[in-house]
């Protein structure tokens, strides 16, 4: 398990053990997730790797492009190193976290995994992580909705009046466990979507990278998770 101390990892580790899995946690103080050699040694003898590592900026910093630099590196360079090491170590399954905000604005249409994506700003690194993990023959990529509830930090701003995909951290963690038995591929992970029709903050126009960050928050994304449910029986409980 990579990212065991994060919001998702803290939920996932006990669920993995309850499901009968033996879980080893990557110690970032002794093993860098950017070092293929160290990772290969750490992965030896394991059947699967679950990568839930992120470094999401908190509070109002989330609207600043530079605040996402470390998270972007984890999703790009980090996921590439994890996949390469897993293949060298003979690991049969890699589960990688990602986000559903990559979808283009879909209006009121339901968006499954084949819907068009429009990765701009800080969400583009999630697409790179997806490309990396799908290089692995047993790669599973999870497009999580906005984490809400539990230990998740509420977003600093919501824009527009469209649909949004959300998921409780406990349900997201349960999806990561279920993904160990899913066919390789991409899966949405979210509860029934919500309509943002009250309490919405309207923002002025911005330019450059800052505009891309705000634009992502304002897309209407009626994301559905039917594929994961049909493949594994996973359903949100919260």
What form results from the Cα inertia axes? globular
Radius of gyration: 17 Å
How would you classify the helix and strand content by structural class?
alpha/beta
Summed up, the helix count is 7
N-to-C CA distance = 24 Å
Order of helices and strands: HHEHEEHEEEEHEEHEH
Major sheet characteristics: 4 strands, parallel
Average of pLDDT: 88
**How many beta-strand runs?**
10
Ranges with pLDDT <50 over ≥5 residues?
Answer: 198-204
> Strand-residue fraction?
5-15%
State the helical fraction. Answer: 25-40%
Which strand order does the major sheet show? 1-2-4-8
Summarize the structure.
With 238 residues, this protein is α/β, with parallel strands linked by helices.
What is the secondary structure topology, with strand pairs?
Blueprint lengths: L6 H12 L17 H8 L4 E4 L17 H21 L3 E7 L10 E2 L12 H10 L5 E6 L1 E2 L15 E2 L1 E2 L1 H10 L6 E5 L4 E2 L12 H10 L4 E2 L2 H7 L6
Parallel strand pairs: 1-2, 2-4, 3-10, 4-8, 5-7
Antiparallel strand pairs: 6-9
Helix pairs in contact: 1-5, 2-3, 3-4
